[in-house]
């Protein structure tokens, strides 16, 4: 059964506190493919408490170069190196992030012992991360609305269609090697009869997770997040600090909820909580968003969210 799990490594913004580390989310799927979204300071400390290790990460997608999103990178790579990671790692993001990562590693890590591939992203785009057994994972990106060049990301799983056993039974055939031919070509010849894919499969539902990084409410993010299963949206401030939010390229919880509604997503996870909201004060952000978007969650460090599809 396909699933995706999100572990919140850092739910806060601006600077780490004893309650919240800064922005970082670990996303892994049933095939084991693992993506880290941003790498705030101390991300690896919470990663050690998750079911995954630094060796599992295949790709790090970074939104922008502000410290609360990148300061954990050097430590992560150092830990990968000293624990003898072997598989290659890809770090992707805007040019400023890629330059920062490259220069930091050159200055601090010496020989890592594994290959790091850098990928500079800009504007809007899409990349196939894997295609295995008919299952696909794509990464898409679009500009966020922040004070510096920043990208939002969408991870989109498109599992292979599933053959319905009852449909085969009703036309009197048994599963066999011809199934791969059917999935590849859209039809297959079985005992002289032609079976068409649409007659025996149910369309796969798929799932998608959109992560905004830092952003004010943003048209391009509404488009990127369209009908996402989960939208992880900047929610730095409560509504009384709306002016401050917009002038600093951030969102209030209310605006995160409005974006979620406009994009037609299934659920919303608020993050990048300002350090001014201590403990249960952060529930204020949750209540404000909940009043406008019913499937709202407030993120906490080490929270795990599973999406099954
Ligand atoms: Zn930030
Ligand atoms: Zn920022």
Structural write-up:
This protein is an alpha/beta fold. The protein folds into two domains: 3-160 and 204-308, Ribonuclease Z/Hydroxyacylglutathione hydrolase-like (Metallo-beta-lactamase, Chain A, 4-Layer Sandwich); 162-201, no CATH class. Helix content is 27%, strand content 29%. It has eleven helices and 18 strands. The protein has helices spanning 43-47, 67-70, 73-82, 95-108, 165-170, 178-185, 197-200, 219-224, 242-247, 253-263, 283-290, and strands spanning 3-10, 24-29, 34-37, 59-61, 89-93, 116-120, 125-132, 135-143, 151-158, 162-163, 187-190, 193-196, 201-202, 207-211, 230-234, 267-271, 296-298, 304-308. The strands form four sheets. Strands 6-5-4-3-2-1-18 form a seven-stranded mixed beta sheet. Strands 7-8-9-14-15-16-17 form a seven-stranded mixed beta sheet. It has a two-stranded antiparallel sheet with strand order 10-13. A hairpin with a 2-residue loop joins β7 (125-132) and β8 (135-143). α3 (73-82) crosses α4 (95-108) and α10 (253-263) packs parallel to α11. It is globular, with a radius of gyration of 21 Å. The protein starts with a strand and ends with a strand. 42% of the residues are buried. The structure holds zinc ion (2 copies). One zinc ion binds next to loops.
